Amino acid sequence: MSPELKARFDAEIQNNKIVIYMKGNTLFPSCGFSARAVDLLKPFGPLFTVDVLKDPAVRDGIKAYSKWPTIPQVYINGKFVGGSDIVAELAERGELEALVKG
Question: Model pTM?
Answer without folding.
Answer: 0.95
